[in-house]
Amino acid sequence: MHEATRIIAIDGPAGAGKSTVARRAAEALGYAFLDTGAMYRAATWRALHLGVNLDDPAALESCARAMQLDMQETEEGLKVFVDGEDVTQAIRSPEVTRVIYKLDQNSGVRRHLVALQRQFGERGPTVAEGRDIGTVVFPKARCKIYLDASLAARTERRAKELEAKGLPVDREKLRAEIHERDEHSRNRADSPLRRADDAVLLDTTNLTPDEVVARIVQLAREKLP
């Protein structure tokens, strides 16, 4: 089903720079961009907004399935709407980040969102980024990339993102939260974060976004002639 579609699957832990470089690579290649992390964030925001019991798996799944999600690529970047409300900034809040693992560890939520992600990929050439893209969502993608970076580098990147939005940042606390999310992602029973056997490892610790984008575009052109 997906082998006939041009898919670039990008995986990696939080703060590895996936969203920024995947979006720019998609622009350079003329591909659509799919930020799967934004989908999980949107589902998490909705659960928090509606006061859903985060320890009730069935309630979380129902909440995610009832969500009206719209993601639009604009000149200002990706816009995310939940039930008609612009939540682009809200889904990046520390509150969402702290509890998102409760959604991305939920098998029912994952099944629903993976189905939506595959539907998106069916539309045409796509750069998709997340944590299980090359292993679960598009396992037959011909171009798979695993982005990684040191915990220190990932913490600093996320801190700068938050500071740019005018939010206060406690770097030690942020570092601990990113490490905890890494552990949740790698050790969850359903679709754990791991590098696909056929994925190219790209350590971004000492690379600029421009350098990472150039490498992704190069790999795409090599693997998707």
Structural domain tally: 1
Q: Please report the first level of CATH classification, the CATH class.
A: Alpha Beta
Write the CATH homologous superfamily.
P-loop containing nucleotide triphosphate hydrolases
Which runs of at least 5 residues are low in confidence (pLDDT < 50)?
Answer: none
Question: Care to describe what's here?
Answer:
- The protein is an alpha/beta fold and 225 residues long.
- It has one domain: Rossmann fold (3-Layer(aba) Sandwich), CATH 3.40.50.300.
- Helices cover 51% and strands 17% of the residues.
- The protein has helices at 18-29, 36-50, 57-66, 94-99, 101-104, 107-122, 133-137, 151-164, 171-187, 209-223, and strands at residues 7-11, 32-35, 69-74, 77-82, 85-86, 126-130, 143-148, 200-203.
- The strands form two sheets. A five-stranded parallel β-sheet has the order 2-6-1-7-8, sandwiched between helices. A three-stranded antiparallel β-sheet has the order 3-4-5, with helices on one face.
- It is globular.
- The model has no long low-confidence stretch (mean pLDDT 92).
Key structural traits:
single chain, Rossmann fold, about 220 residues, five-stranded parallel β-sheet, 10 helices, three-stranded antiparallel β-sheet
Helix-strand blueprint:
Layout: E1 7-11, H1 18-29, E2 32-35, H2 36-50, H3 57-66, E3 69-74, E4 77-82, E5 85-86, H4 94-99, H5 101-104, H6 107-122, E6 126-130, H7 133-137, E7 143-148, H8 151-164, H9 171-187, E8 200-203, H10 209-223
Parallel strand pairs: 1-6, 1-7, 2-6, 7-8
Antiparallel strand pairs: 3-4, 4-5
Helix pairs in contact: 1-10, 3-6, 8-9
